[in-house]
Amino acid sequence: MFNLIKYRFIFLAVSLLVIVPGVIALFMWGLNVGIDFSGGSSVDLLPNKSFQTTAQVKDILQPLNLKDVQVNFTQNPKIRADRAAWIRLTPQIDNTVLNTIKSNVQKQFPGEQLNFRQDNYGTGSSAFSMVSISGFSKVPDSAKLSQATTGLPKINDKAVTANKPVIGDNNQTQAISLLTSNKFQTNNGDIEKVQQAFYNKGIYVQLIDSSTVGGSVADQTKLYSIFAVAASSLAILLYLWFSFRKVSRPWRYGACAIIAMLHDVLVVVGIFSILGHFFNIQIDALFITALLTVVGFSVHDTIVVFDRIRENMIRRTTETFEQVVNASLVQTLARSLNTSLTVLFTLLALTLFGSNTSIHTFTLTLLIGIASGTYSSIFNASMLLVIWEHGELGFGIFGGKRKEQVALAGRRESRELARSRG
């Protein structure tokens, strides 16, 4: 039988090599947090044309001087630009004109469940209104839309003129998701300024959704996230202590599982600190969800190994504690790898080929965390248990007398457990 325990210090050294760069990065740069933790605004827009790169969008937004702006393209087949229309009207219209346009459009497209949105831009002679219409079941007829803008009521005895309606690109489902540290105020027209920046380049956009997270909410999210990780760690420790209560020093099993779990947390957080600094990847509330999932998965694997150790201590009454642990690891190795690899393959596919970029951080967190959790469950938790049992916590191997005492104690405990089971 292959002796894994023999290489316990090598396995722990590998873990340290992975953790240390991330911890250093964490102290130097911290985490690149999103608006969930820092406060800011999120805006989703539907443009009438496709963009090839996010740099094109950032160039349009550059005059606004947005802080920490992030641009993502999302594919939403339910909201299609080629089934939306934009009508520009001058001067700025009021509700009477808007209601007339709604009525005229519905007459031209009977049975359609349409959504209308009006936004006003500019002041004085340069003022205009933009009416966005979405929800068409198919690409709308431009001629019919033009007919809907004839005979509109005057405003202050001034005729309302409408540009030819603009319809989006065919088969275009691309939406733009903006994240920025700026806290947009609706009453100040901040979101309208973003739309205006696109209109200045001749690009029509429709606001799909927007949200703003204030500083107090962000601080509360940070606090609750830390509390969630701490509470789950304490609950796991207490549960393992209770589950292994018939084994001598049961708290060691819980402590080793928590140390292995913290290893996985540090690996994930450290890697994302590096990714945030060099690739501007931000973490959000989904990151915490993924991190807690990693915690559960890691401890789940560790418990399987520990439970096999407990069973073998009853069956293998003549073997040392180190031999029992090694046998348990070898017996559960294939099961742990098979379970983890099936999950990792799925997460890898989602990370590489998933069309929704908003969940890439989530899937990448799970991918890194579960890979780390698989390693720590096999090569860290049980190794720490043996090191603790041998009194090697200082990573200096004590003499043969100490090892002999441990071996005798392990055999004695195995016999006592066997007798207690009858």
TrEMBL record:
Residues in Protein export membrane protein SecD/SecF C-terminal domain copies: 200-389
Q: How does it sit in the membrane?
A: Multi-pass membrane protein
Q: Where in the cell is it found?
A: Cell membrane
Keyword Hydrolase present in the record's keywords: the answer is no
Q: Which Pfam families match?
A: SecD_SecF_C (PF02355)
KW Oxidoreductase (keyword) present: no
Q: What is its main location?
A: membrane
- Span-the-membrane segments of this chain are 223-242, 254-279, 285-306, 337-354, 366-388
Q: Which domain of life is it from?
A: Bacteria
Keywords assigned:
Cell membrane, Membrane, Protein transport, Translocation, Transmembrane, Transmembrane helix, Transport
Q: Which family does it belong to?
A: Belongs to the SecD/SecF family. SecF subfamily.
Q: What does this protein do?
A: Part of the Sec protein translocase complex. Interacts with the SecYEG preprotein conducting channel. SecDF uses the proton motive force (PMF) to complete protein translocation after the ATP-dependent function of SecA.
Under NCBIfam families, the record lists: transloc_SecF
Q: Quaternary structure per UniProt?
A: Forms a complex with SecD. Part of the essential Sec protein translocation apparatus which comprises SecA, SecYEG and auxiliary proteins SecDF. Other proteins may also be involved.
Name of the protein: Protein-export membrane protein SecF
This protein's species is Ktedonobacter robiniae
Task: Read off the lineage from the record.
Answer: Bacteria, Bacillati, Chloroflexota, Ktedonobacteria, Ktedonobacterales
The encoding gene:
secF
